[in-house]
Specification:
The protein has 336 residues and is an alpha/beta fold. The strands form two sheets. A six-stranded antiparallel sheet has the order 4-5-1-2-3-6. Strand 11, helix 9 and strand 12 form a beta-alpha-beta unit. Helix 10 crosses helix 11. The protein starts with 28 loop residues before the first strand and ends with a helix. Bound molecules: NADP nicotinamide-adenine-dinucleotide phosphate. NADP nicotinamide-adenine-dinucleotide phosphate binds next to helix 1, helix 5 and strand 8.
Length: 336
């Protein structure tokens, strides 16, 4: 697939437009019949505030050949059925070669780099940020997809796969006994990260949510010892309350909110030498980098890479191991 705008050599994520004419596809590509999109939370909320979500998705995909939100720069992932497995995928060592025609799969690479054509949108589900549609998409040899598990409803597994990078990375970043802060602890990734931090042996986990309704699921999960009700954009108030609740500054802060301006709350709450994991797509590199400099805080700031080895399997394992977490996901994301 070539990009049709932008400098030569641009890779698909950075390309302004991808070729989504699937009449001719290459042998190192996998063709999917698309049934459902899972729009990432930051993008969905932005489009909801701007107006008609379906119309915006159709326009973006028509003009860009991919679901790449112009404002947030983020995408999501999709659920579909394998239509054709390129003959060169096996010799290239692509994990996609293990798939077979008609397998039901979720893509594990962003819609911002996935060539996509949408023929029609059937419905938009604002609660789950999912879009039932008909169309086609292509995954490249370097891409990944997970077969849908037999023991979970598809819409639930899709929701978990959307944020599959988060919990495995929190697991490896959490030191035994650590103080861990989770901004947006009641959301999809916030719940998974809280559970992962608890299982990794965190000493004290404090969550932040902006109101009681959003905090309810986190309270039910019980991974956070305390939940502070505050707006993550109110950095001083959040940091002061969270540090008090934890009995000291945090070793690790994880940002799982879906709105801008949460950078400074994490920076002010984290100790010198501590780590901040910005999983949120609403994170601004400049606000984080210059904000930390501005308060002379020596923290390691990690961009929320959506990939970690075996992230899909590890996230499903976490859901299976944590019965309350699984119940919450089923109640929130099951459609059928
Ligand atoms: P989600 O389920 O919508 O959760 C976000 C949570 O943050 C919600 O509980 C929300 O509360 C809360 N929140 C929003 N504004 C807040 C504020 N001002 N103060 C405190 N809490 C606030 O989202 P998600 O699916 O977990 O995704 C979280 C973020 O990760 C999004 O930015 C998403 O785009 C991003 N993401 C990143 C990757 C990656 O690879 N790095 C992959 C997928 C998604 P309410 O419900 O009250 O709004």
């Amino acid at each position: 697939m070539e990009s049709s705008r932008g400098p030569g050599g641009t890779l698909p994520q950075a390309a302004w437009r991808l070729n989504n004419d699937f009449d001719s596809i290459y042998d190192d590509e996998l063709l999917l019949e698309v049934e459902r999109l899972n729009i990432d939370s930051a993008s969905f909320v932005q489009m909801e505030q701007a107006g008609d979500v379906a119309a915006q998705i159709l326009e973006t995909v028509r003009t860009r050949g991919k679901q790449h939100n112009r404002v947030t720069g983020s995408g999501g992932m999709l659920l579909g059925r394998v239509a054709r497995v390129g003959t060169a995928l096996a010799e290239l060592g692509s994990p996609l070669a293990a798939l077979q025609k008609n397998d039901r799969v979720a893509s594990l690479v962003s819609l911002t780099l996935t060539p996509l054509r949408i023929d029609r949108i059937v419905s938009v589900d604002p609660k789950r940020h999912q879009v039932v549609c008909a169309g086609q998409a292509v995954l490249f040899a370097s891409g990944m997809a997970a077969k849908m598990p037999a023991d979970l409803p598809e819409s639930v597994a899709l929701a978990a796969f959307d944020v599959a990078g988060a919990a495995p990375q929190v697991t490896r970043m959490t030191q035994k006994g650590a103080r861990v802060l989770i901004l947006g602890c009641g959301g999809k990734s916030g719940l998974l990260c809280s559970a992962a931090a608890r299982r990794a042996g965190a000493g004290r986990i404090v969550g932040v949510e902006r109101d009681e309704a959003s905090a309810a699921a986190a309270r039910r999960l019980g991974a956070c010892g305390e939940i502070v009700l505050a707006d993550a954009a109110d950095a001083v108030a959040v940091a002061t309350a969270a540090i008090k609740a934890a009995g000291g500054e945090f070793d690790l802060a994880v940002s799982c909110v879906n709105v801008p301006d949460a950078e400074m709350a994490a920076i002010l709450a984290t100790r010198d030498g501590g780590t901040i994991y910005y999983f949120s797509m609403s994170t601004s590199f400049t606000k984080a980098a210059l904000g930390a400099e501005g308060v002379s805080r020596d923290v390691t700031m990690i961009v929320g890479n959506g990939y970690a080895p075996s992230h899909a399997e590890k996230t499903l394992e976490l859901l299976r191991a944590e019965s309350v977490l699984q119940e919450i996901f089923i109640e929130r994301f099951k459609t059928e």
